Amino acid sequence: MVNLTIDGRSVNVPEGTSIMDAAYSAGVPVPHLCFLKEINEIAACRVCIVEIEGKDKFVTACNNKVEEGMVVYTNSPKVRLARRRTVQMILSQHDCKCATCVRSRNCSLQTLANDLNITDTLYEERLEVQEWDKTFPLIRDSKKCIKCMRCVQVCDKIAGLGVWTLEGTGARSTINVSGSRTIAEADCSLCGQCITHCPVGALKERDDTEEFLRAIADPKKVVVVQVAPAVRAAWGEGLGLDLSEATVGRIFDSLRRIGADYVFDTAFSADLTIMEEASEFIARFSNGELKDKPMFTSCCPGWVRFLKSNYPHLTGQLSSAKSPMQMFGSVMKTHFAQEIGVDPENIYSVAIMPCVAKKGERNMEFFNEEYAGHDTDCVLTSRELVRMIKAFHILPETLEDSEPDHLFHDVTGAGIIFGATGGVMEAALRTAYHSLMGENCPPDAFKVIRAESQKTGLTEATFNLKDIDLRIAVVNGLANTRRLIDEIDAGTKKYDFVEVMACPGGCVGGGGQPIHDGEELAFARGKNLYFLDKNSKIRYSHDNPDIKSLYENYFGTPNSHKAHHVLHTDHFA
Ligand code: HC1
Ligand code: SF4
């Protein structure tokens, strides 16, 4: 152990501890901008400088270790002056139009400048202007970039992709898409992790709220909105609601007040996905198709984009089931349109998602005899939902619990846990068990695959069902996924069924969720979904009464000709 003094407090920490962590353990947070634990510890911003007694130069707290007897000052007059100069220098290269910035009031640079009482800029402004394709779902504003390197490191270490790179040197250094490509040419999975880890407003999703509001204002359009499982676990963070207040029922109320004609829960179509995917899995497993390579889940478009660009030869291993979002859209434009007597052309299908990649998935076009075009017309992130609620001056405390509409009212706990890593697999296994054994398993029979923390991001298990050993794996985070797929591809790991989610912790940690300066909240949000599952009246997708009626009245059986036509894709489009 090492003994030292930080701002007059005695501290005792293990050898090798950083000054930043030692200070934190003593209740002394050191201001910082670029630091992200175990991801970006390179002191690029130099905001975390501290003074050490007996040394002439400041040291950065994030990447320097404690030493025995050290006397550290994190906020001495000299430190404060130097830190102010550093931040003023950063501000001189940053577009400080906070009033028009999407991250205003949730920006680490703004908070820091306010805390340091910076009311003017000392240096001449020098903003970098870089062209950007504003139609792409991920938007970069070079004028706001502070070169902290977080996006570069997050894309490399969490997403395993390396879309971003540092170019140039000294004052001319800049972040750009790597390999002199445009963002559309790069293999961006659209997981959005660079957005949720950006400390300022340099990265954001394309805002589609105006498009949605135009449809609301159009009297011809019937606007149907679905809300993804993971949104309920995080939207309240953006409005100051606690978990008991931030119910999905209150999201439905807010959407109705904004003008939606019908509101639904994507957990319903998650149950529908399970019906299709579990029966597809049993069929592919039984006919020997999965002897060498597993079937992969296909509901995460970040993962699907990653697989298609990095391992195109494995595309055929994906489940052919569309994602719950797309299934809901296609059911809206077929069965639902017929039932309410509206031309599918006039159904405007909207999805509130925790995800940026869903904005890309929405572009998939389908040409059926029933309708042509998109299953989903507009995707809004949890953050866009929160912004709309604020824009409509809805007081969060006045929201009331409200039920989803019929015909797709009922949901199950199995559908709700889709939003957490392992949830799709667990829901599928509950239904596969029922198909193979003819009875329900205990609802928590497969809970060993739930993840409590990031650790390796991989969970493996073998379950014996009717004398068959089912080898499954669940992975989250694309860098972890790359390691796993390399092994599957090389034949050194064998599974029958693999769930992949691009974002750490699954959709609850999605790139469209409220931002907390890189703080990892995905696993706490996931626990909330498991709590909702435990307290659900129905916990098996195949027991959902509205799912049963949908098959009785429209699709017949899972994987029927009609179901295939409306609910599946070959992923090669
Ligand atoms: Fe997800 Fe899914 S779980 S992909 O993360 O399968 O976005 O929440 O809606 O489609 O259900 C996202 C979440 C979501 C789909 C479902
Ligand atoms: Fe989107 Fe969920 Fe996939 Fe993340 S894990 S890219 S939020 S679907």
TrEMBL record:
Q: Using the record's annotation, list all stretches that form the 2Fe-2S ferredoxin-type domain.
A: 1-78
Query: What keyword terms does UniProt attach to this protein?
Result: 4Fe-4S, Iron, Iron-sulfur, Metal-binding
User: Which residues does the UniProt record annotate as the domain 4Fe-4S ferredoxin-type?
Assistant: 136-155, 179-208
Concerning SMART domains, the annotation shows: Fe_hyd_SSU (SM00902), NADH-G_4Fe-4S_3 (SM00929)
Per the database record, which ranges form the 4Fe-4S His(Cys)3-ligated-type domain? 78-117
Which InterPro entries does this chain map to?
2Fe-2S_ferredoxin-like_sf, 2Fe-2S_ferredoxin-type, 4Fe4S_Fe-S-bd, 4Fe4S_Fe_S_CS, Cytosolic_Fe-S_CAF, Fe_hydrogenase, Fe_hydrogenase_lsu_C, Fe_hydrogenase_ssu
Q: Which CDD domains match?
A: fer2 (cd00207)
Q: Which Gene3D superfamilies match?
A: 3.10.20.740, 3.30.70.20, 3.40.50.1780, Fe-only Hydrogenase (Larger Subunit), Chain L, domain 3, Iron hydrogenase, small subunit
Q: What is this protein called?
A: Iron hydrogenase small subunit
**Source species:** Catonella massiliensis
